[in-house]
Amino acid sequence: MGDSLDTVPFNHSWYETLNGGAGLFALAVAIIFVFIIIIVFIIRIIQLPRLRQQVIDDFSVVDNTRSVPTRILKVIIFLLLTAGLVGVIYFNISKMIYDSPKISVALIKNNMMAPFMLFCNGEKRSLKYTSAEYYPAINGISESAPIDLVQQFSIISGKNGECQFFNGTMFLKPISDSSEGTYSLSFIGDASGIIVFIGDNNTNMDWTLTIPQGNLLSNVGVQVLEGNGGTIQYTETRHTDLNENVDRSFQISVIETVIIEPALNGTRINVTIFEPRIVTNQVENPSITLADLFSNVGGYLGIWGIFGFLFGSSKMDPFGFVARFVFIKQDREKLLKELKGDGNVELGTWEKEEKEVDIDTKTSILSNQAEFKNLLSKYYVETDYYEHAVENV
Length: 393
Known about the structure:
By secondary structure, this protein is α+β, with helices and mostly antiparallel strands. 37% of the residues lie in helices and 24% in strands. The chain folds into three domains: 1-101 and 288-313, no CATH class; 108-285, Acid-sensing ion channels like fold; 331-393, no CATH class. The protein has helices at 14-17, 20-47, 49-58, 68-98, 290-301, 305-311, 321-326, 328-339, 348-354, 359-365, 369-380, 384-391; strands at 102-109, 116-120, 127-135, 147-148, 153-158, 161-166, 182-189, 194-199, 221-225, 229-240, 246-257, 267-274, 278-285. The chain starts with 13 loop residues before the first helix and ends with a helix. 18% of the residues are buried.
């Protein structure tokens, strides 16, 4: 799947690029969630001055717990990681919008889809249709019931004279286990020889040209049979784009040519065409999808663990966005209930354990309990939410 179309124009299918309905739903939910978070944050910042100051402190460069060289290095690495994150997001979104699709190749059965075929006798000459049948198998033609193709033929006049045109869209092939069949065709021409064209069955084809032509991915197979016809076989390659449009390309090879006696009213030309059992299907896939983008960004965010390794983690903070900005009153009351001993937490537990510890050892480490509290507040524990809850008793 590593191949890609670097120079062939294609149409993006955003439905496929965004991982279909599931991806669109996930993207919509994510956008709504982020929008709600931002709105709640802005409202609470406006309502509560304490939260405004806390946000200012969180983004303040003043940090007296780190040396100047450490703080400088921390800022540099933070900016580099942030720039890298922006670069990763930009690179992935750019690939999603502009990159050529990846191509996957599969072999599929040649069921249902018949090609267009054009049979010409040469410039300024005419070719008359006499009979045409389709057999659902290559071997054992006589045992298969043929399908009459008379309704699928019409006349097209162009650079190659008056030609017989077979309309593949009007012929629904029978489903067969072999998924291959044989066209047995008979014509009367003004002269010996016949030109066979096999091409795509879409509206982009121009069958009046000397060499009929479709779009960039619809090559027409061409073969000239000398004499009174012969047997040919074609191969087919299909290209399915992101919008599930199918373009078909053909190549023709000659198995044998046939010489027969000319008819009284012209040269009889018989053509037998073997179709392939298997065709090659090239399928376009988005160069990068929404799921790939999230995966790549998430993988890059893992690098931010290096930042924590170099400069340590932040203070422990059990009170998240919901407690701080949404259910402020409810979570504060729950905290106070536990601190007063009405819940599962007992305030006296720490003091009881302290009596069992060597008092002299504790005193040698910290001069008093106030210093211990300041140390915890400064380096380890986020006490802002606790102090705010106690103050509002």
